[in-house]
Request: fold
Amino acid sequence: MPAAPLPPAPADGLAAVPGRRAALVSTGVTLVLAVVLLTWAKWHPYAARVGQLAGTHAWSGSAIADAAGVEPGSAPSLAAGWRFTLAYGAAVWKALVAGLVLAAAVQTLVPRRWLLGLMSRRRAGSSAVVGGLLSTPSMMCTCCTAPVASALRRGGVPTAGVVAYWLGNPLLNPAVLAFLALVAPWPWVVTRLVVGLLVVVGGSVLVARVTDARLPEAAAGAVGGGPDPTAAEHEGGPRRFLPTLVRTAVVVGLEYAVVVFLVGTLSGWLFPLGGSGRSWGAAGVLVALVVGTLAVIPTAGEVPITQGLAAAGAGSAVIGVLLVVLPAVSLPSAVLVVRALTLRVVLATTAVVVAGGLLAAGVLGVLS
Reply:
């Protein structure tokens, strides 16, 4: 009886070594890019800001809503839209560059199997916790983190993990928490932290369940056993980095500019709270929910807005709503992620954020 032929595994294994080594190198490059870009765009500027606030305990600078140069309730203005777009672009361009580069790197330089091994868990709660933890070092606003969140979803990361990363960037931002601790009353900090954690982790799990989000078959196969396809799936990834970056920058840049310009044009209607000295009841909370959901602000933009409203006489319910809703979502960020996350997920996420805003209104009312 003739002997069975030997399998070609050794040769295949030797051939896979260079591919695996290249994957390790490109993943390392992604980590280096993340550290350099975040140091430039976030960590160094925020460290300097914390040092400044520690000495003054007073926020300097105006709210981004003032950049449009219109009175609350004013009719739409194209000039206001242009002024707002320029001011907002100047405030976030570094973070947007970092977000675009990291989004391209996630899609092309990090093997999909490794990405899923890090962020895909068998329980939605575990994926949400991982997504929330990964979001805290990047500290981006909801719009600048949108390209990265979209890249994670396209890579097969479950909905709970992607939504937690998207919401965790603005809500669990340690720099903003430090800013609030230095210039605002302690109940504001506690409200933001407690409700932020509930929205990021619990809310992300709820969104995943409501939208019937399940781990994709490809992701399940990658997390499970079987042969390691790292070398094959990573082949050609670095060559796709620049085209992916250019394509993402063009698409995101155009969408971003158009929607931010629209928000600025309608700023008289979208920022009706600024400049009023009344302390509203339920009507004020409703206005705060709508404004906070649609309006766009840079990182920490909620600090001067809420401080200004508090000085003008707004009640704790309005302040509590805006502390959560204003940074968490916006019309531009929803537009940027809707293709990757689907409209159903975006709407469910917005509903969870609104519920978190209402909870924050109650929490801050009790603590104040």
Observations:
- The chain has one domain: 19-367.
- The two ends are 87 Å apart (CA to CA).
- Residues 19 and 232 are 7 Å apart (CA to CA).
